[in-house]
Amino acid sequence: MSHVGRAAEPDKRMLRRGFLAVRSRLTPYDLRESAGALALRALELPELAHARTVAAYVSVGSEPGTLALLDALHARGVRVLLPVLLADNDLDWGAYAGGGSLERVQHGGRMALLEPAGERLGPEAVQEADAVLLPGLAVDRRGMRLGRGGGSYDRVLARLERAGADPALVVLLYDAEVVEHVPAEPHDRPVHAVVTPSGVRRFG
Q1: What are phi and psi of 108, to 5 degrees?
Q2: Which parts of the chain span the membrane according to its record (predicted)?
Q3: pTM of this prediction?
Q4: Distance between CA 85 and CA 107 in Å, rounded?
Q5: Over the stretch 175-198, which tens digit does the pLDDT of each residue have?
């Protein structure tokens, strides 16, 4: 790995702590308001308006809320795929069938996740998506995303690239998480757009 790659990881850890600390101070009201606004903005995206299949995720804790968006996409007749965390941090996928189709799953000592309760479709199912909604902690002006550090979505993006799949990659964030620069490593891939409660920004 290059010197740049080695230097990036400590910088990323410090940035993650800072963004998570800000999120931890959000109130339940803040979370509800931003989730509603985020859903409205995201639903205006042409990439979602014309999608037949969207790979998304269920927000947890103080992440920008996704449940209103998932329900709206499902109501439109969009096939929504949701991740299932595997023991090696890779992601399997299942179809969303409404709020009652989610189950709370505890993964070791980490936080519990809401995952689809039905059939497992396999890690390759994400290749069928017209758009992939990504979690993150920040994105910069180049479209480089700062993830939480688990590597699950790095694997997803690498799998899409190997398969020659080219879905729209969209990260969902709070307004203050669109920043000038985040450290990037050679394997990092830029996203096409970021959606925040106040709007959409696209990258080249």
Answers
A1: 60, -135
A2: none
A3: 0.92
A4: 8
A5: 999 999 999 888 788 999 999 999
